[in-house]
Structure formats: structure tokens, C-alpha cells
Amino acid sequence: GQQVMQIPQYQHVQEGEDFTTYCNSSTTLSNIQWYKQRPGGHPVFLIQLVKSGEVKKQKRLTFQFGEAKKNSSLHITATQTTDVGTYFCAGTSGTYKYIFGTGTRLKVLA
Amino acid sequence: DGGITQSPKYLFRKEGQNVTLSCEQNLNHDAMYWYRQDPGQGLRLIYYSQIVNDFQKGDIAEGYSVSREKKESFPLTVTSAQKNPTAFYLCASSTPAGQRNNQPQHFGDGTRLSIL
After folding, report:
1. Which among A30, A33, A102 has CB closest to B104?
2. Residue B58 contacts A where some CB pair is shorter than 8 Å
3. Model pLDDT for residues B15-29, shown as the tens digit of each residue
């Protein structure tokens, strides 16, 4: 079945350092979404990517969708303590459900 | 104010007991989903529904059951057949995945289920 893997599983960074998480699918995706889950909270939608090679930015966050639409990345520039949480990607291959990645837990040390 | 309401926030189950988790949405979304999240883990799909009176098994449906009698409601029953039910359960809704203009999934605050 379809699998979506994320690396790394955990990342500890000093405040001000950059952070990147990578998402890889075993199959070609129709689109991919990114979510952030704060500790004890629920996932909150960040962004959706649809086109091959698409790049979108939200302030310090940059999202990319691979040319083959099988991988994606989220890059945070100059992390802040408010960035703490687990970041998930979720992709669909045209079926009526999303497959969530395994998540990357980010800790930011002040 | 639109959103998804899950109740209860905390739930305790006795051995051999069935329990039902509530999920209600007023976002007028056709699709609803139930996920299970274990500590430090990702989200695993239990059941999903694209339309009223129809639902499909996800990746870990064994020991769970659902109904979709109303567009707004998608309750999940954790049956006694689910031997390891302790987890964080999240309900979500969206326009159906696979359409060109997919909308994000909106999540409820979740229900934490524990075994007594």
C-alpha cells in the first residue's frame, strides 16, 4: 500500500538555526498538504501544494513539491520557540483519503 | 463560528465495554475522517466517509465501527474487540480528497481514551 515517510523523526535546534523536514511517498501524489501539531493539540493546516515543482512561502516557512510529485519538503528559516511542534505531511494519490507521514518533531532550544 | 466538536475530551473504558466517541461538524463538509494517534506517532486512518450513509475502512479498522446517518455527525465506536484502544482519537472533515480544489482537513480537539 501507499506509504509516506518523513525524515528526520526528531530534530533539536538552537533558536535562530534553520530546520528542514523531508517527506517521501512510495507513489506519485495528486497533491500534498502540511500540518503542524503543537504538543497536546490537534493538527492545524499550513499549506497545500498541487503542481509539480511548486514552491510556496509563508513568512519564514518554505514549502516545495518535487518535480516527480513523490517528495516534498518544509524549510523553516531562523527558528523561533513558537515553531515547536510536530510537522506532518499528508498526501493523496487521487483516492478519497489522505495518507499522513510519520511526522517530524521539532524542539527549539532558547 | 464553524468547526468540529469532539466529545468527550477524556474517556475511560472498562474491559469488555464498548464506548462511542462523538464528532459533530457545522462546516457543511461532505467528507469526515477518524484517525488514531499513539504517543510520538503519526496519524493512522481508522474509517472515512465521503457522503451520508456511506463509509470506508481505513488502515486500522479492526475493532472499530462507525455510522454516518447525518452529514454533520460521524460517531466512532470502540468495541471490546479492540484490545489496545488507549490512544488519542482525532476526527476531521473536509471536502472529499481527490477533487481538484481540495480543501484542508479541519480537526477537532480530540478524545483521549484510556483503559481502566
Report:
1. A33
2. yes
3. 889 999 999 999 999
